[in-house]
Amino acid sequence: MMTVLSLPETLDLKASGPLKAAFLERRGDAVEVDAGNVRRLGGLCLQVLLAAKTAWAADGKSFSIRAPSEAFVETTRLFGAEGALLSADIHGVQS
């Protein structure tokens, strides 16, 4: 079963707890993360996303990011996490 998780515009410290909970609720299902609305991505939420991707890989489940916003992509690159998070699993990204 594929589950879509739509990210909010602001992924800051306050959003990290609910983001973690949203992933825990979906554990065991393939997940597609819709990052199209993200305007601000903080380090803690980036860590949650990286941990989720790692957990899904360990479970052998699909984890993909759909149509990430320019802000999402740029912030991920600035944090040096593009190789870990931005990969061939991204759908709809324009380079």
TrEMBL record:
Superkingdom of the source species: Bacteria
Entry-linked Gene3D superfamilies: STAS domain
InterPro entries: MlaB-like_STAS, STAS_dom_sf
Domain MlaB-like STAS: 5-81
Residues annotated as signal peptide: none
Name the record gives this protein: Chemotaxis protein CheX
